[in-house]
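User: Design a sequence. Structure:
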C-alpha cells in the first residue's frame, strides 16, 4: 500500500472512562471491525464454533434491543416489511 494509511480513528477508542466515551468507542471499534479487508481475512480463520457463536451473540443482541420494525429497517434495510 502506497501513501499514508487511511485515518481510521482508532486512536480515539477508549473504554472504561464513562458511558458516552464507551458508546463512541464502540461505534469506532465496530467500524474498524467491519472494514472489508478484515471481513475478508477473519471469517476463514474462525473455528466453526466461533463463527456460529458470534452470529448467535450478535443476533441475540439485535433481537433483544430492536423492535421487529427496527430490525427490518436498521439491520436488513427492508423498509417495506409489513408485520
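Assistant: Done.
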Amino acid at each position: 500500500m502506497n501513501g499514508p494509511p487511511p485515518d481510521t480513528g482508532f486512536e480515539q477508542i477508549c473504554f472504561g472512562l464513562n458511558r458516552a466515551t464507551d458508546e463512541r468507542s464502540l461505534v469506532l471499534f465496530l467500524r474498524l471491525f467491519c472494514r472489508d479487508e478484515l471481513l475478508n481475512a477473519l471469517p476463514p480463520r474462525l473455528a466453526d464454533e466461533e463463527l456460529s457463536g458470534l452470529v448467535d451473540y450478535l443476533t441475540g443482541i439485535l433481537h433483544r434491543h430492536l423492535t421487529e420494525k427496527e430490525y427490518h429497517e436498521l439491520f436488513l434495510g427492508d423498509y417495506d416489511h409489513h408485520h
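The mean pLDDT is 91. The CA atoms of residues 46 and 52 lie 9 Å apart.
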